[in-house]
Design goal:
By secondary structure, the protein is an alpha/beta fold. The protein contains twelve helices and 20 strands. The N terminus is likely disordered. Bound molecules: iron/sulfur cluster (SF4).
């Protein structure tokens, strides 16, 4: 029998959760494809289903459990991976490898074939091999060198580490993903190079704490193309910038804490080596609240630090997330946060009203605020954030910016949608592109265009391609 006549085993795949979970999904899908498995768009048509879950907040837990239930009902053969897989019934970390009824997924859905935690490509593949043996002789390797990507072809997430050494009181990620483990710098750079060569125009560096990259290996020296490179954020960013250059691609940094070591990265932004964009999850400004949150870099002088960054690189855009109504937050502490927002002029800010996360230490803190007050503070915060952000957007009118095109039906004859250096995909605004004035001008997805900013529409800019 020739290989072509052997029906390839089909796997259904559902990827839930954050960009870090997405990169886990990509690694599993890449491996499946390399081994000759096909993917199925429906549960019914698949021989087996993998659900990559999220366990961060209670809504995400519910969505994950519901999805597992649907997959079981429609298909029957289900492997579960991801954060929820390492959660016990009482919200603590499950160390049984999903083997006992103490495991939340196992308890709710006892018939699943296997349960693993996050970052477990090999364990997932072992379970797949057991329940759906691979084709014996897959001559055909259709996997591109940069693996399978779930993002559009022109941007990709690059995960540089897994886990986190901090113990923020509102977060259960360390109990699910463990302490920081940095990927070898040579592997990270090799993956980045393959992504650029494969057409990626924007690389988004992600982790739980990008500024801590290499701490676990004491900034060990690794090798890339025979050259020694330190496992350290500054060296990584410099190398990524150099790799991106010949492709004219962007490098964007996420989850960076405001440690003094980050100051050295800002000149690379001023030079244009990487995007002048920094995603710094600050969560609050008041030292006492930060202490109760057990936040990293809480003792740093964030206002002064941000001012110094802006001096070195005036075009820097800072995105951040905050929590309003954290347990014990006084009106005075909250107003400190509003003043901080006005002064720091955070370009892009998101805010959550505090809510308990099952298993988090903060649930036990004193001074839990009524939900209505938390929501009210969130709304007050967002009103200030929008004022700041809208003034920033208005000031761009008349400027010419480089825009990466994300969507352009009919080659942009009716306009399109793109993003400038100030907009990360999914979380920030966009640049709405008008139909080009010049007949010959075309907009193509995944390509850059210059555009003149002509207006503001909510969180978005409106621009005329030139
Ligand atoms: S830094 Fe804090 S919030 Fe972020 S993953 Fe680590 S413990 Fe969680």
């Amino acid at each position: 029998m020739s290989v072509e006549t052997v029906k390839a085993p089909k796997v259904g795949f559902v990827s839930l959760g954050c960009p870090k979970a997405l990169t886990d999904s990509e690694l599993i899908l890449t491996q499946l494809s390399a081994e000759g498995y096909e993917t199925s768009k429906t549960f019914e048509d698949a021989d087996l289903v993998i659900v990559n879950t999220c366990g961060f907040i209670d809504d995400a837990v519910k969505e994950s459990l519901d999805t597992i239930g649907e997959a079981l009902a429609a298909n029957g053969k289900v492997i579960v991976t991801g954060c929820l897989g390492s959660k016990a019934v009482d919200g603590s970390a499950d160390t049984s490898g999903g083997m006992t009824a103490q495991n939340l997924v196992r308890k709710m859905h006892p018939s699943v074939l296997a349960v693993t935690g996050p970052h477990a490509t090999q364990e997932v593949m072992d379970a797949v091999h057991l329940h759906l043996p691979k084709r014996h002789d897959p001559f055909i390797d259709l996997t591109p060198s940069f693996g399978i990507k779930l993002t559009p072809k022109h941007y990709a997430y690059l995960k540089i580490s897994e886990g986190c050494n901090h113990r923020c009181t509102f977060c259960i990620i360390p109990s699910m993903r463990g302490d920081l483990v940095s990927r070898p710098i040579g592997d990270v750079l090799k993956e980045a190079e393959a992504l650029f060569a494969g057409g990626v125009k924007e690389l988004l560096v992600i982790s739980q704490d990008t500024s801590a990259y290499g701490v676990d290996v004491k900034y060990r020296t690794g090798f890339f193309e025979g050259k020694p490179v330190k496992t350290r954020m500054l060296d990584l960013v410099a190398e990524l910038g150099q790799l991106a250059k010949p492709y004219g691609a962007w490098v964007r940094l996420h989850y960076v804490y405001p440690y003094p070591s980050v100051d050295a990265v800002i000149p690379l932004m001023a030079e244009g080596l990487v995007l002048p964009y920094l995603d710094v999850p600050l969560q609050h400004s008041h030292p006492d609240v930060l202490k109760r949150m057990k936040r990293p870099a809480s003792g740093e002088r964030n206002l002064e630090r941000i001012a110094a960054w802006r001096e070195t690189c005036p075009e820097i855009v800072i995105r951040s997330t905050f929590i309003a109504g954290f347990p014990g937050e006084t009106e005075e502490e909250f107003e400190h946060l509003l003043d901080f927002m006005r002064e720091a002029k955070i370009d892009r800010a998101g805010c959550f009203a505090y809510s308990d996360v099952t298993g988090a230490e903060a649930n036990k803190l004193e001074g839990m605020l009524p939900i209505a007050l938390r929501e009210e503070r969130r709304a007050r915060f967002m009103a200030v954030a929008e004022e700041v952000s809208s003034a920033k957007l208005q000031s761009r009118i008349g400027a010419t910016m480089q825009v990466l095109v994300d969507s352009a039906p009919g080659l942009g004859k009716k306009g399109g949608v793109g993003r400038s250096y100030a907009d990360a995909p999914e979380i920030d605004g966009v640049v709405k592109l008008l139909p080009p004035e010049k007949i010959s001008k075309q907009l193509k997805v995944g390509e850059f265009t210059r555009a003149r900013i002509v207006g503001v529409d909510g969180h978005d800019l409106v621009a005329a391609p030139i």
